[in-house]
Amino acid sequence: MLTLRTGKYTRQLAELDPAENYHEMVRIMAEHEFPLDTLIAGELAQLKTFGIPGIARLLHQTGRYEKESTKRLDDTKAILREIMQPGPDSPAGREMVGHLNQIHGFYKIPNHEFLYTLSLFIFETVRWNAVFGWRAMTVNEKEALYREFRDLGEAMNIQDIPPSYEAFEQWKTAYEQAHQTYTPEAEKVTVGILGGLAALLPVWIRPLTQTLVATLINDEQLLKVLGLKAPPLWQQRSILGLMKTRAWLGRHFNLWEKRSFADSRIINHYIHYPNGYQRMRLGPKVLVGRIYARKPLEQTD
What we know:
Blueprint: H1 8-15, H2 22-33, H3 35-48, H4 53-62, H5 64-67, H6 69-84, H7 91-104, H8 111-131, H9 139-155, H10 165-179, H11 184-200, H12 209-217, H13 220-226, H14 233-252, H15 265-268, H16 285-293
Helix pairs in contact: 1-2, 2-3, 2-9, 3-8, 4-11, 6-7, 6-11, 8-9, 8-10, 12-14
């Protein structure tokens, strides 16, 4: 049900200090101020990692986006929620970070790839709101987002996290310029995630998934890197027109003005887990089985 936007959450965010209250600020943004935008940005952040050859190669080798894309998307959403909702420094958050670190420990992933992936969950959210959201994020909101994900990175033992929002943004830009390139693996994994994303959309819009995603990526170079073609201009203009209408509506109405997005059917809907999930069993089945059996890895799924 549409409710008039009162601006109370915007005012709360403006009154909070990102140096002290960044977790509360991120919670307000994710549950009331920019909830759906944050969710969509997180999905696109995953897709953008494929532009790095090492990441695309590993993801192709595991086959998780190509063989069980909806499970991979569900696992990522659930794991991040289990960490970020209570906070990376909370007991529940630390427990889930430990679980995530154990899963990652089965692979030889260089620190710079962890760092780049971490950066995307910050800067894709900022980009999305600036281009498609009902308003752009403020300096303090960006700082809060940076600090929250910095905490996550530190909990994951990621090294050399840049010391400020601005420094991290510069690092991300330079990293993309140095490493982002097309590979066949990137194209294959992209096709896989598009299938998973289609399953999240209403049936009537699923045939347009690639057109929709390519338009929302809004980056011609990245489309080439991922092996995607830019849609015809008339399709792009139609989608962008709908997004402008959505932004206008968002300035005046808020679906989560009186309720939390954390309780909504959207965030709680998991295709692979229709009856709910066991939080410490999230992740690739074989790897989770190895964790619990305390056996060395013999194969990946």
